[in-house]
Amino acid sequence: MSAEPPRILVVDDESQILRALRVVLREAGFEVVPAETAKEALDRAAVRPPQAAIVDLVLPDGDGIEVTRRLREWSDMPILVLSAIGEEEQKVRALEAGADDYITKPFGARELVARLQAALRRAGRGEEPAVTVEGLEIDLAARTVKREGEPIHLTPIEFDLLRVLVRNRGRLLTHRALLSEVWGPEYVDDIQPLRTHIARLRAKIEPEGRPKYIVTDPGVGYRFSS
């Protein structure tokens, strides 16, 4: 007996986008559960929980941020939000509400599927004692880092930043999320130290200083390339 395809809740009130998402995701091997309103989305998720959700930020009876928050109350499923260009503040709020990533409209089918697949892989991955990504070896338990076999010395703050990014690799983390995790919730509005330490971390681990592992999403945060 073949395994059932992953069920993806897709929430968007624009019928054209909803149809396009259904086609794209079905061709990629997913079962699509469509919803056009926040209420319909929450009802369908409660009746038969999906493996992931794609939620538009603007809905006729609410917004995707509230849908994300409500889903996150009882589920760890990956949640991707759809947003229009220029909605940076909304993107940050969605990520802080529990979204794993976002896709900006208009979006490419390949990018959407790739981000969804990456989110599902992260969800199925347990705690890893060591991670190797393109020549960079990070031992989370021993707190050691090597590049091409050569040890790299990181300060405690630099390693803590790297650890949080690596544990969430592929996922966009907001400035506030990183500041809260590494420095504490009382420092979430002080972005300059974060930028300074990210720059120093990049100088040590990135080949020739080019951003390869730690990618910036301007105005929102950082992600560790997976």
Give structural attributes.
226 residues; alpha/beta; Arc Repressor Mutant, subunit A; 2 domains; five-stranded parallel beta sheet; four-stranded antiparallel beta sheet
Structure explained in plain terms:
This protein has about 230 residues and is α/β, with parallel strands linked by helices. The protein folds into two domains: about 5-125, Rossmann fold (3-Layer(aba) Sandwich), CATH 3.40.50.2300; about 130-225, Arc Repressor Mutant, subunit A. Helices cover about 40% and strands about 25% of the residues. The radius of gyration is 18 Å and the shape is globular.
End-to-end Cα distance, whole Å, is: 32 Å
Oligomer classification? single chain
Structural class: alpha/beta
Number of domains in the coordinates? 2
The pLDDT mean sits at 87
Strand order of the largest sheet: 2-1-3-6-7
CATH topology-level fold name of the largest domain: Rossmann fold
From the alpha carbons, calculate the radius of gyration and give it in angstroms: 18 Å
Show the helix and strand layout.
Elements: E1 7-11, H1 15-27, E2 31-35, H2 38-47, E3 52-56, E4 58-59, E5 62-63, H3 64-72, E6 79-84, H4 88-97, E7 101-105, H5 109-123, E8 130-133, E9 136-139, E10 144-147, E11 150-152, H6 156-167, E12 173-174, H7 175-182, H8 191-205, E13 214-217, E14 221-224
Parallel strand pairs: 1-2, 1-3, 3-6, 6-7
Antiparallel strand pairs: 4-5, 8-9, 9-10, 10-11, 12-14, 13-14
Helix pairs in contact: 2-3, 3-4, 6-8
